[in-house]
Design brief:
Largest sheet: 5 strands, antiparallel
Membrane topology: Multi-pass membrane protein
Organism: Bacillus thuringiensis
Distance between the termini: 41 Å
Radius of gyration: 29 Å
Biased composition (Basic and acidic residues): 363-373
Keywords: Cell membrane, Membrane, Transmembrane, Transmembrane helix
Number of strands: 14
Pfam family, one: TraG-D_C
């Protein structure tokens, strides 16, 4: 993702092809029961194998691209097929250029270390902002009311598959009973009793006290400890830095989605992103929009840069939006004149009192005048010459 490109056509087409392949692989693996094969390595491999292969169907007609044929054979209502169609209008050299652009972006996932690292997920991203969750299954599109031990109630609507996941704030302990009712049908209810809570993992054991076939409780997670995730990227090799940017974007997506479904529309605990090398990280998709709305989701970003030129270089016109939505600017030191001038303007001006005298040198008859003027609170040169302490 590069927001500052002059011609976004190539990037947009590459993203469409990538999205189409992700959707196609997801649909295929879910249908076959092999969800563990849904990886970015599989996406890169699909493009590598099919994108460069030509198949002759009719000797009298030109050969067809294997990737095109794959999507042509998908059902007409396939979301993957429709996504692929947005890039299928390009032919000839333009088509090859789009494939090359897409493969350039996916090539990092073909490295053994990255392929293995992104093949599995051992981190529950949602736990960063939500530690307490109840998951279950009921009638599709039905609203379920959950009654907690203190008598308080929360409700949530199940999706088209009947699954629901409620993030809650209430305190529960061993021996407590939680009741689940289908809203509008009090006879349809299930009750569970909490048997054991593992404080280290959040795994919670429970037994069903009162059971209804239409309301099934799958898991209860109760993790009340804060979570810290450290991303360590080598400064001598920037080829893997894009993984950090993707991780930040994916984590925010999970948190924002959970916040939109939670009561109050925000994460249950504050999440702080400390991006120490934000100016050197590859661009994060939608960062201008993220920084605009994140506080409403109970998410904060601490963005550390060496100069504003880094922000402009990475995000183009969005740089001003990102900077403008940062409520506080903490300045340490810079050697960049433009950055110093911008910080000086943010500090504003101070009023100073100017006085002057006029008259002959030995004369006692002198005129004294005073006037008010303004000057920067700290000039750019003063900011660039900060002394330690």
């Amino acid at each position: 993702y590069k927001p500052g490109v002059k011609d976004p056509f190539w990037q947009e087409c590459a993203m469409s092809i990538c999205n189409a392949m992700i959707l196609a692989i997801t649909d295929k693996c879910i249908a076959e029961g092999t969800e563990e094969k849904i990886t970015m390595y599989a996406v890169a491999n699909m493009l590598s194998e099919l994108g460069s292969k030509e198949i002759i169907i009719d000797p009298e007609e030109p050969p067809k691209n294997a990737l095109d044929l794959y999507f042509e054979n998908l059902p007409s209502d396939s979301v993957a097929k429709m996504q692929y169609a947005t890039s299928n209008f390009s032919k000839g050299q333009a088509r090859g250029g789009i494939f090359t652009q897409t493969m350039n972006g996916l090539s990092i996932f073909t490295f053994d270390e990255i392929a293995k690292m992104t093949a599995k997920n051992s981190v529950d991203l949602k736990r960063v902002g939500f530690g307490k969750t109840i998951k279950g299954k009921v009638t599709p599109r039905k609203r379920i009311e959950i009654v907690f031990p203190d008598g308080s109630k929360e409700s949530i609507k199940s999706d088209i598959t009947g699954r629901f996941a409620l993030d809650f704030k209430k305190v529960i302990k061993v021996g407590d009973t939680i009741q689940f009712n289908e809203k509008g049908n009090k006879k349809k209810k299930t009750s569970i009793s909490i048997m054991k809570i593992d404080e280290k993992t959040g795994d919670t054991e429970f037994k069903v006290v009162e059971e209804n076939e239409g309301i099934q409780v799958i898991t209860v997670d109760y993790f009340d400890k804060p979570v810290a995730i450290f991303m360590i990227t080598p400064d001598f090799d920037s080829s893997n830095h894009v993984i950090a940017s993707i991780f930040v974007r994916q984590l925010y997506f999970i948190l924002a989605k959970g916040a939109s479904l939670a009561r109050g529309g925000k994460c249950h605990r504050e999440v702080v992103f400390c991006l120490d090398e934000f100016g050197n990280m590859p661009s994060i998709e939608g960062m201008a929009n993220i920084i605009t709305v994140c506080l409403g989701r109970n998410v904060r970003f601490n963005l550390v840069i060496q100069a504003y030129a880094q922000l402009k270089n990475k995000y183009g016109e969005d740089a001003d939006t990102i900077d403008g939505n940062c409520g506080n600017t903490i300045y340490i030191l810079t050697n960049d004149q433009e950055t110093a001038e911008k910080v000086s303007k943010k500090l504003g001006n101070q009023t100073i009192n100017l006085s002057s005298r006029s008259g002959k040198g030995l004369s006692t008859d002198k005129n004294k005048t005073e006037s008010l003027d303004q000057r920067p609170l700290l000039t750019a040169n003063e900011l660039m010459n900060f002394k330690e302490g």
